[in-house]
């Protein structure tokens, strides 16, 4: 669940009076998600999402996230649009939390995506990378090499509780990634968390992307590697080459990957697998028993990381992929 902060109807009505959104008719907490508290609101106008930003989100980052959604939406990407208050501000406060109203996006996330959906995700990711051009505010990726080291320092001592030998393996992996991380690839605004639960579909058509709260400036191909990890493995841990091919072909049909980006995909995929392994491991070790949040399995990402270590060329992800020369 992710309703960390409760609200009263009276406070909510006061909050809504600052917006041109009609009268509140009903509201309910949304169980999905892990970072923030979300409510679905029905009003005499359109349905809305109310987000209360919880402690893991830096308040100083909110202008980046909200401004980015506006920027992408203005450039034709289907994503939630933050609503301005009467005074023009995008951010308010409710129950002592920073709070925003964003437009409700129609659609559902897919529990069992197929290759055709991976193709749509690839296209949408490339569309987002292009639409992100020209966005003025910058936000460095706090969860890249330096951030991974900090997370690892907090978990290393207890890592062998999760699997014997992990402390040594991950320390060596970090050293490898530090030595081999690509430096001169095209960079821009990336989503950085485009997992299944953040992509909505209506039937087989992709209706939009949500949850821009890890978005930042980083290598565009790193975002592709995140999607390869999130969309192209089966529940049994095996890589699905049909899905990988569809995702990469979809991406390249909108924004072709250069030869350098293509060659970097195995190392980038090791990095993105490590990133999700580390945040999940940290949560696994620190979330108290009985907390009302579903802990995600770090070992799923350890297995993906180990898979990528054996990849020597992008052809193993997608045999027929064509890249820009
Ligand atoms: N703009 C939106 N339109 C429709 N549903 C949304 C929207 N934003 C969030 N949701 C719903 O809230 C859930 C959690 O949102 P998300 O942004 O992923 O939260 P978190 O950042 O806490 O992980 C989503 O799975 C979805 O069901
Ligand atoms: N996608 C991450 C966790 C972040 O969850 P979200 O609900 O904010 O998308 C993971 O799977 O570890």
Automatic annotation (TrEMBL):
Q: Which CDD domains does the record associate with it?
A: HomoserineK_II
Give a GO biological-process term: threonine biosynthetic process
Q: Does the keyword ATP-binding apply?
A: yes
Q: Mind telling me which InterPro entries this protein's record contains?
A: Aminoglycoside_PTrfase, Homoserine_kinase_II, Kinase-like_dom_sf, Pseudomonas-type_ThrB
Tell me if Amino-acid biosynthesis is a UniProt keyword of this record. Answer: yes
Its catalytic activity? L-homoserine + ATP = O-phospho-L-homoserine + ADP + H(+)
One MF annotation (Gene Ontology) recorded for this entry: homoserine kinase activity
The UniProt keyword set, sorted, is: Amino-acid biosynthesis, ATP-binding, Kinase, Nucleotide-binding, Threonine biosynthesis, Transferase
Tell me where in this chain the Aminoglycoside phosphotransferase domain is found.
Answer: 27-257
The EC number(s) attached to this protein equal 2.7.1.39
Task: Give the metabolic or biological pathway.
Answer: Amino-acid biosynthesis; L-threonine biosynthesis; L-threonine from L-aspartate: step 4/5
Which Gene3D superfamilies does the entry link to? 3.90.1200.10, Phosphorylase Kinase, domain 1
Name the HAMAP family for this protein: Homoser_kinase_2 (MF_00301)
PANTHER family named among the record's database cross-references: AMINOGLYCOSIDE PHOSPHOTRANSFERASE DOMAIN-CONTAINING PROTEIN, AMINOGLYCOSIDE PHOSPHOTRANSFERASE DOMAIN-CONTAINING PROTEIN-RELATED
Query: Which family does this protein fall into?
Result: Belongs to the pseudomonas-type ThrB family.
Q: What is this protein called?
A: Homoserine kinase
Protein's gene: thrB
């Amino acid at each position: 669940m992710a309703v960390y902060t409760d609200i009263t109807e009276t406070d909510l009505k006061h909050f809504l009076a600052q917006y041109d959104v009609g009268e509140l008719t009903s509201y309910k907490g949304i169980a999905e998600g892990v970072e923030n508290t979300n409510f679905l609101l029905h009003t005499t106008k359109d349905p809305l999402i109310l987000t209360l930003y919880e402690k893991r989100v830096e308040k100083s980052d909110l202008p980046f996230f909200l401004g980015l959604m506006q920027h992408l939406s203005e450039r034709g990407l289907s994503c939630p649009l933050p609503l301005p208050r009467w005074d023009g501000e995008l951010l308010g406060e409710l129950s002592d939390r920073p709070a925003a109203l964003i437009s409700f996006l129609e659609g559902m996330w897919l529990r069992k995506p197929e290759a055709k959906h991976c193709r749509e995700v690839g296209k949408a990711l490339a569309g987002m990378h292009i639409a992100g051009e020209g966005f003025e505010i910058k936000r460095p990726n706090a969860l890249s090499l330096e951030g991974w080291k900090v997370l690892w320092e907090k978990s290393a001592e207890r890592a062998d509780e999760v699997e014997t030998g992990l402390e040594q393996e991950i320390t060596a992996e970090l050293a490898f990634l530090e030595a081999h991380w690509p430096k001169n690839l095209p960079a821009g605004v990336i989503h950085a968390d485009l997992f299944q639960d953040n992509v909505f579909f209506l039937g087989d058509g992709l209706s939009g992307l949500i949850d821009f709260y890890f978005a930042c400036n980083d290598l565009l191909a790193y975002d592709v590697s995140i999607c390869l990890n999130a969309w192209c493995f089966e529940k049994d841990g095996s890589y699905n080459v049909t899905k990988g091919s569809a995702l990469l072909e979809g991406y390249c049909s909108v924004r072709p990957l250069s030869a350098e980006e293509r060659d970097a995909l195995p190392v980038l995929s090791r990095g993105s697998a490590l990133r999700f392994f580390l945040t999940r491991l940290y949560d696994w070790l620190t979330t108290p028993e009985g907390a009302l949040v579903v802990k995600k399995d770090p070992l799923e990402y350890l297995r993906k990381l180990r898979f990528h270590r054996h990849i020597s060329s992008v052809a193993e992800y997608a045999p027929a992929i064509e890249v820009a020369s």
